[in-house]
## 1
Amino acid sequence: MENKDNKFLIDDLSFRYENSVEKTLKNLKISLKKGEVHLLLGDSGSGKSTFINILSGIIPNDILGEVEGELIYKNVDILKNDIQKRAKDIGIVFQNLDSSF
Ligand SMILES: Nc1ncnc2c1ncn2[C@@H]1O[C@H](COP(=O)(O)OP(=O)(O)OP(=O)(O)O)[C@@H](O)[C@H]1O
Ligand SMILES: [Mg+2]
């Protein structure tokens, strides 16, 4: 069987902001391996920040909406973990470092 311990799998991830009719993200499927570096590229408004906020848990904990799908890390769906537990695996470095510390 394939070793999924060093993979981060985004499986069928969709998201709709609470105050929106349309989904902002639809059925994303991405497989990331330990040690890889990825660039997320897209037009303004295409959903980059939305995606990153879902990974970190800012969505839907602080910004409300409906998340569907799974984020599988070390064979566990971390969407089901609370935000404190998830923060041990996922962190964000913001654009303006001076305001982050
Ligand atoms: N809190 C919110 N409530 C409702 N809609 C939102 C909210 N935040 C963002 N959106 C909408 O979701 C879509 C994706 O926005 P997002 O900010 O994720 O795009 P982005 O790719 O990060 O853009 P940029 O390159 O300008 O940073 C846009 O249509 C935006 O208007
Ligand atoms: Mg953005």
Note: Residues 70 and 76 are 9 Å apart (CA to CA).
## 2
Amino acid sequence: MRLAIIGAGFAGMYAALSSARLRDIHGVSPDDLEIALIAPEPTLVVRPRLYEPRPETLTAPLLDVLKAIDVDYIQGSAETINTDARTVQITTPKGPRKTLSYDRLVVATGSRLFRPNIPGLAEHGFSVDSLDDAIALDKHLHSLADRPAINGRDTVVVAGGGFTGIEAATELPARLREILGKDAKTRVIIVDRNSAIAPDMGEGPRPVIEDALRKLGVETRLGAGVAALDGSGITLADGKRIEAETVIWAAGIRAAPLTQQIPAERDNFGRLLVDRDLRVPGVAGVFATGDAARAACDDQGNYALMSCQHATRMGAFAGNNAVAELLGVPTRPYHQKAYVTCLDLGEAGALFTRGWERKVEMVGDLAKKTKQEINTVWIYPPRAERAAALASANPERVTNL
Ligand SMILES: Cc1cc2nc3c(=O)[nH]c(=O)nc-3n(C[C@H](O)[C@H](O)[C@H](O)COP(=O)(O)OP(=O)(O)OC[C@H]3O[C@@H](n4cnc5c(N)ncnc54)[C@H](O)[C@@H]3O)c2cc1C
């Protein structure tokens, strides 16, 4: 029997750990139940940190931990899924394509930035969405120091005033000062179509964010859409222009395209609708998880968000349930009651809220310490020691905040 997991993000990593854990609990040998993880690189890209400086350091190795729990790593990108034949076709960096058959499949392919068809965006827009994008942005920011300090050299526009846009923007004043010197007249401007900053956060936490933006001198242009980009700035929908040699696009993500190959229903973000066991209804043997899936978290109408916090726990349930089906033991319905947000606000600290109503629990330095602990400890893979790694993936305990 074989379980194949596609994707080595937070969801894929925890699917691998929890499936190996259940196999181990039932004393089944890896020869009888093979678990294979398919991903382009055997590393976890720590996506929630990609707004930070030195993005090239923001990965964590996975090979040793996978080896310790007897999960096979297959290097490559899943190109085609045939859900009738139960096969995945994989393109490998070197050598011919591989075809892998599966008995159960976990789709954990995550998400990627949505780039609308705005003139100039593809050529001139930067982002903090993927490792390559974040590295390209960092290189570009460093290259500004070699250019004349005229026009928009010292101005960065961040398009999108949601979580990612705010974290990127609030980190920038310090980042730019480090590169351009403390006397540079840097400007950071968040542009968003919505009339309020952080539209998903609601009224409670918003004053904390607004206060942080004021302290850092980050400007906002709200109710303003970006109509076009060129090498030297942006044009807004009302025709106004902002000179800026750096534009960071942070206005929305979508599930990775592989979900389109599963013949099932998807939401507006391209996420596969899944049942409480994270199975894709009507497609035999297929589970979806993390940013690739839309799952109910409880019976109160809350649904998992495209977040690391949800992806990690959903991954643990999906891996567990896929193996449970293969072993003929009961599955565990996914549930995630606790929900917190921890938003980095650069040198203005951070914001920590609890619950779906986003009650502010911590601000400033206290929240910042929690954010640093989340970002440097909690979201990293467990150490490559079999018992500890397997124990870390009990679905009931993963991200139980
Ligand atoms: C700048 C930024 C800040 C963020 N901040 C936060 C935060 O503060 N809190 C929070 O909870 N979340 C945050 N997030 C969101 C969080 O990073 C995502 O929700 C999380 O990464 C989703 O995990 P995932 O495993 O589902 O997908 P991903 O992390 O996207 O991983 C997907 C994996 O699938 C692989 N893959 C994709 N397609 C294929 C294929 N065809 N074949 C093989 N492999 C494939 C990818 O290479 C990758 O390994 C942030 C994201 C960004 C970009």
Note: The pocket of flavin-adenine dinucleotide is lined by residues 6-12, 38-40, 47-48, 50-51, 77-78, 108-111, 128-129, 163-164, 167, 256, 258, 290-291, 306-309, 311 (CB under 6 Å).
